[in-house]
């Protein structure tokens, strides 16, 4: 059984997941010695290689755990947290701990062996967003669980252990410290100004336009003013909403288009980089919050986090967000696009030919 242990100095919770040490390295960036292709457990027809599905969007008449699906949700075979059991909160001397209760699910986004979500049709991406919503709505009924984080790891540098396009949901009995810091900071702003900081950011970015990547009916995509990473892009709803799971159908329809565009722009501009995206939303046990605003953070993995960043909490970003946004705005998704050649371009943003000459 995993454990949750609390750092008594900063209040950060850590998952001690004993069984994940047994997780195999499924990702292969080079061919195996036998040169035989590895069987992908996420492809249609290999359903027996995954745990039984929790939810699937299927063709009429198809049977569970068999072919005929468009999206599947399955338990992670090597979960960071487990759904069975009691929290058993307790002390260990000066320390606090509890059982590693939660949920860890995998959303398989296509029956085909697609490596990039950007290659999926927009309707497919909209169904992925509906699956996200459906799973949060279901899991928030469990009063042991407090927070659901949806995230996607893309390619080896982004932490993906399988290349078939998929995302994950981890639901925890506590609020992660990064989300807690966002909620605390936004509450301080609200108490001082009487407004939501995310709503104000949206309005200012649209007014100055320098960092806007995409402006749609319901969402603004922009490179944040204090971007931690090159080409970091946030997608923020224009209408105030604190909980992602309350997104209406027009929002899902528009978000499918925006997410498709943003991911394609990043992949075209940066030569198919590794990246992560994370949906930050309000905790299950909170009502609609006037000070907090759900949003998506898309983070290309172009630079490495090293000693200074770990030790100080500072980030060093060699690409100003104004330059990044200006370049991404010019990328046309369905047309040939240049590889980013701006100042301080990291090696991972060079073309394959350039990397071969380095």
Automatic annotation (TrEMBL):
Its cofactor is Zn(2+). Residues 3-176 form the Galactose-1-phosphate uridyl transferase N-terminal domain. The active site is at 166 (tele-ump-histidine intermediate). GO terms for biological process: galactose metabolic process. GO terms for molecular function: UDP-glucose:hexose-1-phosphate uridylyltransferase activity; zinc ion binding. Its EC number is 2.7.7.12. It is an enzyme of class 2 (transferase). Zn(2+) binds at residues 40, 43, 113, 164. Keywords: Carbohydrate metabolism, Metal-binding, Nucleotidyltransferase, Transferase, Zinc. Residues 192-298 form the Galactose-1-phosphate uridyl transferase C-terminal domain. Binds 1 zinc ion per subunit. This is Galactose-1-phosphate uridylyltransferase. It comes from Aquisphaera giovannonii. The gene is galT_2.
């Amino acid at each position: 059984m995993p454990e949750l242990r609390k750092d008594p100095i900063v209040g950060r919770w850590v998952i001690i997941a004993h069984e994940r040490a047994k997780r195999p390295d499924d990702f292969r960036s080079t061919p195996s010695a036998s040169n035989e292709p590895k069987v992908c457990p996420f492809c249609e027809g290999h359903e027996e290689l995954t745990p039984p599905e929790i939810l699937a969007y299927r063709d009429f008449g198809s049977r569970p755990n068999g072919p005929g699906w468009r999206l599947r949700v399955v338990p992670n075979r090597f979960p960071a947290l487990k759904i069975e059991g009691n929290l058993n909160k307790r002390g260990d001397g000066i320390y606090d701990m509890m059982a590693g209760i939660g949920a860890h699910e995998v959303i398989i986004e296509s029956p085909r062996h697609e490596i990039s979500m950007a290659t999926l049709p927009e309707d497919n991406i909209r169904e992925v967003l509906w699956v996200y919503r459906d799973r949060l709505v279901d899991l928030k009924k469990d009063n042991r669980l407090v927070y659901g984080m949806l995230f996607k790891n893309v390619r080896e540098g982004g932490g993906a252990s399988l290349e078939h396009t998929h995302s994950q949901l981890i639901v925890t009995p506590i609020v992660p410290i990064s989300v807690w810091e966002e909620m605390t900071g936004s509450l301080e702003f609200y108490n001082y100004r009487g407004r939501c900081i995310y709503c104000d950011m949206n309005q200012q970015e649209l007014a100055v336009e320098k960092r806007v990547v995409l402006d749609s009916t319901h969402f603004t995509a922009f490179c944040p003013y204090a971007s931690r990473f090159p080409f970091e892009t946030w997608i923020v709803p224009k209408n105030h909403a604190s909980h992602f799971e309350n997104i209406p159908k027009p929002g899902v329809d528009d978000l499918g288009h925006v997410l498709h565009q943003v991911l394609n722009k990043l992949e075209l501009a940066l030569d198919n980089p590794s990246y992560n995206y994370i949906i930050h939303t309000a905790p299950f046990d909170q009502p609609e919050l006037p000070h907090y605003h759900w949003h998506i953070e898309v983070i290309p993995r172009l630079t490495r986090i090293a000693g200074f960043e770990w030790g100080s909490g500072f980030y060093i970003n060699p690409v100003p967000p104004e330059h990044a946004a200006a370049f991404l705005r010019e990328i046309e998704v369905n047309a040939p696009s240049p590889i980013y050649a701006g100042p301080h371009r990291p090696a991972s943003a060079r073309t394959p030919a350039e990397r071969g000459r380095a």
